[in-house]
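Please, structure for the following, as tokens.
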Amino acid sequence: MPILNKDMALCISLSGRPSNLGTRFHNFLYDELGLNFAYKAFRTDDIEGAIRGVRALGIRGCSVSMPFKEAVIPLIDELEESAAAIESVNTIVNDDGRLIASNTDYEAVASLIGSHGLDPAVPVVVRGSGGMAKAVVAAFRAAGFAELTVLARNRETGTALARKYGYRWTAQEPAPAPAVLVNVTPIGMAGPDADALSFSEQQLSAALTVFDVVAFPAETPLVRAARAAGVPVISGSEVVALQAARQFERYTGVRLSAEQIERASVFSRQE
């Protein structure tokens, strides 16, 4: 990377639980492309103060993670369609003091639905009703999927999400059937549910596609089980790499190739 200098553009992330994924992804590409940029992750419990700092200090770009994706909306100047569609922000660009917000999670999911050739006539089951679930469900709605079930233990958030996009909610495990199965819960991440499956083996064997948004580890138990059953997979590592690439392009104006995205994604996962 270039030596720190007064003209260097700074991009940051704001999160309750920051990780190194975005930091490594962006800085790897700044270095590879010789860009005079630096990226740093921050933990904060003062989102209003942090956003004032983004504006006041001329910070070029800001990634926003949970629990701030909705809280930042009153603090910015313009919502792009991707953020307005789901009332959630994960990316802010500072354009000479004007803060413009988008949601590259939504864009990434929508892009992957298309690039993997998912059929809108096929039913979808989305497990989870949190913030990322909103991006997923909205992307399937925008892609023309008529039949989708939100599977969530939380009746309040599950029904609200389903109703918002004209779908149905259930707390009951669905019977195995040809469908797209989407996990938008922490099941499969490091922790108490690290070895658990978000869908049964019977459901997996009947599935047409399995989509796990868990980004780390890249090979979750669900992804491994789906591959073993011969079911096509969309992984969370694809989502996180593509959404980071969309952020990178907004911050720098540089459009990345698939090979550059893959190299940065691999590097970001190294210990």
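The domain at 9-103+238-268 is CATH 3.40.50.10860 (Rossmann fold). Residues 188 and 220 are 5 Å apart (CA to CA).
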